[in-house]
């Protein structure tokens, strides 16, 4: 799932390549992706794309006062295209969900971008709204993970009897962190994903806040300036434990372990995070805290 660094890097890429250009047409290929009807998608045609920004994991394109807001969900992505075909795509064919055509620069081929989603579970969501706050997911967002200081972070965790993994990924608590970077943050902070948020000590709070900022800013620094096509690879290259089950931890050499759930999983290093003890790999176990 694209998280804060990837969505911020996509917004920066679009500010460089798309802002200032006119939207000539928007093709919808996956009807289930569009979540609003007023204003219609067709209202974007003929308007200039004037800004690109991020709210948590939502990408927000300002189109002359209307907002094209996208949540890429688990398997969605944005692909920059050159020489776009003039014929509209056939609905329901392949991973394409939506195509945005931009007015070509003088002497250049037509350009734009595709929103795609792989797999059978479709979660990619597109909204056309007059204000980003009209998008329910944005209205519910907690403070951005890169804006909270240590004191604010401590206040967010205080009294919250939930596991750190779930707390970091709860967008109503903290916006922008998903499955991958929560694993990376907890590994960097040397904390168990199942430690309860309200049991974090002052020293652990400082480590966790520092790890959150360093992990996210480090990933963002690596990805800013990259083309959309290379961002996924850059993200994978920087991961220490996430999606590295069975491989050695780059910090201590222990084997990275996994806990699987019904529709997701987490990865961690026992030596770095849980005192060398493996976590039970079943949802209803008494888990190490």
TrEMBL record:
It catalyses: Hydrolysis of DNA containing ring-opened 7-methylguanine residues, releasing 2,6-diamino-4-hydroxy-5-(N-methyl)formamidopyrimidine. SUPFAM superfamilies: Glucocorticoid receptor-like (DNA-binding domain) (SSF57716), N-terminal domain of MutM-like DNA repair proteins (SSF81624), S13-like H2TH domain (SSF46946). GO terms for biological process: base-excision repair. Residues 240-274 form the FPG-type domain. InterPro entries: FPG_cat, FPG_N, H2TH_FPG, Ribosomal_uS13-like_H2TH, Znf_DNA_glyclase/AP_lyase, Znf_FPG/IleRS. Its cofactor is Zn(2+). Transmembrane segments: none annotated. It comes from the Bacteria. GO terms for molecular function: 8-oxo-7,8-dihydroguanine DNA N-glycosylase activity; class I DNA-(apurinic or apyrimidinic site) endonuclease activity; damaged DNA binding; zinc ion binding. Residues 2-154 form the Formamidopyrimidine-DNA glycosylase catalytic domain. The keyword Hydrolase applies. Belongs to the FPG family. This is DNA-(Apurinic or apyrimidinic site) lyase Formamidopyrimidine-DNA glycosylase.
